[in-house]
């Protein structure tokens, strides 16, 4: 007896499975959900993907994603252009913006250095960052806001060595114990950072 196959469904499932963090079962559920959408909703979904690909580009200044030549953050005259916060991705920009604590500009690397994974400096927007610093003498500080992982720390250290000779101050976001977390469940690296980053009360 021949095995039942629905090729269009399998192709759709395969495409969902290529997304990060999506396993075979989740990919199958998403594919089924899309197939059970009304035709108009399915077309709207597909059109959103196509339009996003056509209109979204990298900001010429900070390499963030935008639908304009220069993103709204970089074009905002009220932003402090003397401070640049370096992040890994668009999601990090959104997370920092939600705090409403920063009125500065950003630079998005679109990844982190990881020789083990084959991710080298020329694969990130490091050249654009360095050109930006050389072209704009008004920049006084660069904040490293890469994630507190091995790759994040290595990327921050690498960039720091490139930037400091330009006479620009380089700082690092303080990482410590999350609110609501017990000390006994906190890893040693986080505890060490919390100790060194302690502040007066």
In short, what is this structure?
The protein has 201 residues and is an alpha/beta fold. The chain has helices at 7-17, 24-35, 39-55, 72-75, 90-99, 126-135, 150-163, 188-196, and strands spanning 57-58, 65-66, 80-87, 104-108, 141-144, 169-172.
Q: Overall mean pLDDT score?
A: 88
Query: Could you say which structural class the secondary elements and strand pairing correspond to?
Result: alpha/beta
**Count, helices:** 8
> Regarding CATH, which class of the domain at 73-172?
Alpha Beta
What is the fold-level CATH name, i.e. the topology of the domain at 73-172?
Dna Topoisomerase Vi A Subunit, Chain: A, domain 2
Q: Describe the largest sheet.
A: 4 strands, parallel
Parts with pLDDT < 50 across at least 5 consecutive residues: none
Q: What gross morphology would you assign?
A: globular
Could you give the count of β-strands? 6
- Whole-Å distance between the termini? 74 Å
Percent of residues in beta strands = 5-15%
CATH architecture of the domain at 73-172: 3-Layer(aba) Sandwich
- Percent range for helical residues? 40-55%
CA-atom Rg in angstroms:
21 Å
Write out the strand line-up for the largest beta sheet, numbering strands in chain order: 4-3-5-6
SSE pattern: HHHEEHEHEHEHEH
């Amino acid at each position: 007896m021949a095995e039942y196959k629905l090729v269009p469904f399998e192709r759709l499932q395969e495409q969902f499975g290529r997304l990060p963090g999506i396993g075979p079962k989740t990919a199958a559920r998403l594919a089924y959900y899309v197939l059970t959408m009304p035709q108009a909703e399915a077309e709207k979904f597909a059109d959103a993907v196509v339009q996003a690909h056509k209109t979204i580009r990298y900001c010429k200044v900070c390499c963030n994603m935008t639908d304009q030549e220069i993103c709204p953050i970089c074009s905002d005259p009220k932003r402090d252009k003397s401070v640049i916060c370096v992040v890994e991705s668009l999601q990090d920009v959104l997370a920092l913006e939600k705090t409403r604590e920063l009125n500065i500009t950003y630079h998005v690397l679109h990844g982190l250095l990881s020789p083990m994974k084959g991710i080298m400096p020329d694969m990130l927007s490091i050249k654009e960052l360095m050109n930006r610093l050389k072209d704009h003498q008004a920049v006084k500080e660069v904040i490293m806001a890469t994630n507190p992982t091995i790759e994040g720390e290595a990327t921050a250290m690498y960039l720091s060595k490139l930037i400091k000779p330009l006479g620009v101050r380089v700082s690092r976001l303080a990482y410590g114990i999350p609110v609501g977390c017990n000390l006994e469940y906190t890893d040693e690296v986080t505890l060490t950072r919390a100790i060194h980053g302690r502040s007066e009360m």
